[in-house]
Each structure stands twice: as structure tokens, then as C-alpha cells.
Specification:
Elements lengths: L6 H30 L9 H16 L4 H30 L16 H31 L19 H16 L8 H6 L2 H17 L3 H4 L3 H31 L8 H16 L8 H19 L2 H19 L1
Membrane topology: Multi-pass membrane protein
Main location: membrane
Family: Belongs to the mitochondrial carrier (TC 2.A.29) family.
Length: 324
């Protein structure tokens, strides 16, 4: 994500790209969550879940929780891109001798540990802010799974407005676990901050290995899509057991006081006992597909005219302030 653009510009363009990707891929996100939280003896296939939701709840059912999920996506990506760019620029500036005028702090290549560390810290900050919305989203996405076995309530009643359902979920989470409930699974989320860090490291590696000239500094939208999509797919495959544990923890209604790490260990043990090693990767295929499209669209939009528009607005505001 090396760029000569200011952190605020990168934050806005990154958030715009992620919001666009989220709107396009959201049904896949909902299906992914349903597959990951299924405890069926045979598991649940993505196509089977898709057909079930579409048949029982209609097209609207494929967008349960999209409001809170989009909010979490925008919040998380805005602060991730901003923090990543800011931290990277600060670290680059410290590595350049004060006498050197020929090296830009924003184009200097960092070492592998530095790239991972910057991405990890930025990921922790962004996820700390967006986790409450992610927890609400996970509950909204899975509430209908148990609707047939529970008496009607504002949460699982499709006739109730989206805003009422959101408030019901928020109230339910608070009653179960207090404020801490909105950060359910955060310890696993912290470890998953390696995901964007690893993704952007692999994306940088892709740019250095396959792109040349100006394309390496500013990839074309198609190049950005391919590189980001492949990078995210590899990162997801490496970290998937953590992703599975995070989703199940956030969708859980348990008010247990056990830590997320011990809960994650229980989830892995239970999944392994039920399905063997495959149980730790339940839903991996659809998760990779969703991540491939989402990350690819995010970076493609970020490298396209939306980023140019944000730059133009940023320069316009700067010129206006300078004229005062």
C-alpha cells in the first residue's frame, strides 16, 4: 500500500473502496457466517445455505445485518488505512538520514518485520473500534438460524423493522454480558489483526515481484484487484481457524466469563472432534471467494477515480486554507 498520498486521503479512499466491496459481496458474507456457525453433523454447504435463506426469507434475507456490517467495514477500513499510512510514514522518516533529500518517506520500502508490525498495530486499532458493530452483525446474520426453535421475538421476526431488530440485538447482548459482550472474541480478533497485515505484506511482495515502472508505484485497477485478491486469499487460508473461532464467538449467546482464548480452544477442539481436521476449515471455500472479491474490489476502487476524486477534494481544501 505504499503511496505518496496523505494518510487522510488513503483513509477516505480505502473506506470508500471497502464500502463498495461490502455492498457487492454481502450475501456471500452472510452465507459464510451461516456456514461457519453451522453445527450440523454433515456441515452446511454454501449453496445449500444460500437456497435456504432465499427460499425462506427472500432476497431481503440475504442482506440481514448489512447496515451494521457496512458501518463496521467503513469504520475499520478508514482507521486501518489511516493508521497504516501514518505509522508507515513515521517509521520511514526515522530511517532516512537527515542529510538525504533524494528519498521520499512515502516510497521507502520497509523490511518484512516492519511491514508486518505496522500492519498489525493498525489492525488492532481499527478492529478495537469496529468490533462492537461486527458482534451485532454476526448476531443479526445468525438469529434466523434458530428462529424455528424459539418463540417469536423482535430479533427473529422478519416483519419487524431493521432498526428495531438492531436495537433488540444490542439490548440482548448487553443483558447477557454487559458492555464486555460487544467485544466478545476480541482476543481472537487481535490475533486476526495479522490478516490485513499479512495481506498487505503479500500485496507489497506481489507489486515488487510482478510489476515494473510506474505500475509498481501506482498499479492499474485490474492489477490492484488481482494482487489484493490473491494476497487476501493466501492470508485467509493461513489464519482460517482463528477466523472460524472469531465468528462463532461473536455469534454465540453464551454469557460465560471464560476468556476468548480458552473459548477459541474449546471451539477448535469441538470442531476437530466432530469433523476432524476439516472441521477447523468449515466454510473456507466461500470465505476465500468472498475475500477474493471483497479485497480485490476494495483495492481496485481505491486505485481508481474515487481516489482521484478524494485527492482533488483534499487539494481543493488545502488551497482554500492557504488562500485565507
Amino acid at each position: 500500500m505504499t503511496s505518496t498520498l496523505p494518510p487522510l486521503v488513503q483513509a477516505f479512499s480505502g473506506a470508500a473502496g471497502s464500502a463498495t466491496a461490502n455492498a457487492i459481496t454481502y450475501p456471500l458474507d452472510l452465507v459464510t457466517t451461516r456456514v461457519q456457525t453451522s453445527h450440523s453433523a454433515k456441515g452446511a454447504g454454501a449453496l445449500q445455505v444460500f437456497r435456504h435463506v432465499l427460499h425462506k426469507y427472500g432476497v431481503d434475507g440475504l442482506y440481514d445485518g448489512i447496515g451494521t456490517d457496512t458501518g463496521a467495514t467503513i469504520l475499520s477500513n478508514f482507521f486501518y488505512f489511516y493508521a497504516y499510512s501514518l505509522l508507515r510514514n513515521l517509521l520511514s522518516r526515522r530511517r532516512i538520514p537527515s542529510s538525504s533529500q533524494s528519498v521520499s518517506t512515502k516510497t521507502l520500502l520497509l523490511s518484512v518485520p516492519e511491514e508486518l508490525a505496522v500492519g498489525f498495530l493498525a489492525g488492532i486499532l481499527s478492529r478495537a473500534l469496529s468490533t462492537p458493530l461486527s458482534v451485532v452483525t454476526a448476531r443479526l446474520q445468525t438469529e434466523n438460524d434458530d428462529a424455528d426453535s424459539r418463540p417469536p421475538s423482535p430479533v427473529n421476526n422478519p416483519e419487524v423493522s431493521r432498526s428495531s431488530r438492531i436495537m433488540s440485538v444490542v439490548k440482548s447482548i448487553y443483558e447477557e454480558s454487559g458492555l464486555a459482550g460487544f467485544w466478545r472474541g476480541f482476543e481472537a480478533v487481535v490475533l486476526l489483526s495479522l490478516n490485513p497485515s499479512l495481506t498487505f505484506f503479500l500485496y507489497q511482495f506481489y507489486r515488487r515481484l510482478f510489476l515494473r515502472g510506474t505500475d509498481r508505484q501506482t498499479p492499474k485497477p485490474a492489477q490492484a484487484f488481482l494482487g489484493a485478491a490473491l494476497s487476501n486469499s493466501i492470508a485467509v487460508a493461513l489464519l482460517y481457524p482463528l477466523i472460524l473461532a472469531k465468528t462463532r464467538l461473536q455469534a454465540s449467546r453464551s454469557s460465560s466469563s471464560s476468556t476468548s482464548i480458552s473459548s477459541a480452544a474449546y471451539i477448535w477442539t469441538s470442531a476437530y472432534q466432530r469433523h476432524g481436521p476439516r472441521g477447523l476449515y468449515q466454510g473456507l471455500e466461500v470465505t476465500i471467494l468472498k475475500g477474493f472479491l471483497s479485497q480485490g474490489v476494495t483495492m481496485m476502487v481505491k486505485q481508481s477515480r474515487i481516489e482521484q476524486l478524494v485527492v482533488a477534494l483534499y487539494l481543493y481544501r488545502r488551497a482554500g486554507r492557504g488562500a485565507v
